[in-house]
């Protein structure tokens, strides 16, 4: 199955209303790439490691991503999303760059992309957790 990745480059102030628009348009969830996450202090009670790549984040503003199935209504759905985002200007929101881009993603790529974030973790001298796809 093919999916459309809808990326919206906007301002931090518009994260909540744009996320709502995407949910109402059929997205099951959103991905928010906010450069503020790179400098945020984190509570690492259990020794979590946050390996965030600066290149995955915009220099200014935030990027909100949503995934919708490719179907015959996709163009209409995207036009509706753009129209609703532009309608936010009435409420005096800072929408930043307000740039919408669309790309296609194969489900096979998407279904396994999460694996790149999981690597072997050494718990103690004799105990290491190694994901099955790692050597």
TrEMBL record:
Asked if the keyword Methyltransferase belongs to this entry, the reply reads yes
Q: Which GO terms describe its biological process?
A: methylation
Q: Name one Pfam family in it.
A: PrmA
Entry keyword annotation includes Lipoprotein: no
Task: Select a single GO molecular function from the record's annotations and give it.
Answer: protein methyltransferase activity
Sorted UniProt keywords: Methyltransferase, Transferase
What InterPro entries does the annotation carry?
Answer: Ribosomal_L11_MeTrfase_PrmA (IPR050078)
Q: What is this protein identified as?
A: Ribosomal protein L11 methyltransferase
